[in-house]
């Protein structure tokens, strides 16, 4: 294993751990949807936009699944693995893009998350529950994107 691949694996592992920890400890329960609002999107989008599709998928999938497992929502684990994994993968398409492209793919990623959780909530509970998740997931997506872009800007300034 090369130093570069070791560094990449370590970076991904740290991003997953930080994302799960921050999202677990900073969350707002939403009784209407049997879920919660958290900052998981921040880490997923940051990973994808910074390190690419593969890293975005891994951070998204593992963060989403582990967060649900630890927070007591195991019924969502598989859905979160797939939805957040796809979200990170889509964001990662814009890894080398300009800010406008990154914003476009962040919005697309959030829309994928909204659709995924609407369908998952409908499958687990019913259509009204799936539809009821849209406003809170929208808030979560926007907040996560704002945090991700703040982090991207801060790191870019630091590296200059």
TrEMBL record:
Record flagged with keyword Transmembrane helix: yes
Lineage top rank: taxon: Bacteria
Membrane-spanning residues: 12-37, 57-83, 103-125, 131-152
InterPro entries named in the record: ECF_substrate-spec-like
Keywords: Membrane, Transmembrane, Transmembrane helix
UniProt KW DNA-binding keyword: no
Annotated Gene3D superfamilies: 1.10.1760.20
PANTHER family assigned: UPF0397 PROTEIN BC_2624-RELATED (PTHR37815), UPF0397 PROTEIN SPR0429 (PTHR37815:SF3)
Identification of the protein by name: ECF transporter S component
Organism annotation: Fructobacillus broussonetiae
């Amino acid at each position: 294993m090369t130093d570069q691949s070791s560094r990449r694996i370590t970076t991904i592992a740290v991003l997953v751990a930080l994302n799960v920890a921050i999202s677990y400890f900073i969350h707002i329960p939403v009784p209407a949807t049997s879920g919660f609002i958290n900052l998981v999107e921040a880490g997923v989008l940051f990973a994808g936009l910074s390190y690419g599709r593969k890293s975005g998928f891994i951070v998204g999938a593992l963060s989403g699944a582990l967060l649900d497992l630890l927070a007591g929502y195991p019924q969502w684990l598989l859905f979160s693995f797939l939805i957040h994994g796809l979200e990170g993968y889509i964001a990662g398409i814009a890894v080398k893009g300009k800010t406008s492209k990154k914003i476009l793919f962040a919005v697309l990623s959030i829309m994928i998350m909204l659709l995924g959780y609407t369908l998952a909530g409908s499958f687990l509970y019913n259509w009204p529950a799936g539809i009821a998740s849209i406003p809170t997931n929208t808030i979560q997506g926007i907040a996560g994107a704002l945090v991700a872009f703040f982090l991207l800007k801060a790191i870019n300034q630091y590296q200059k």
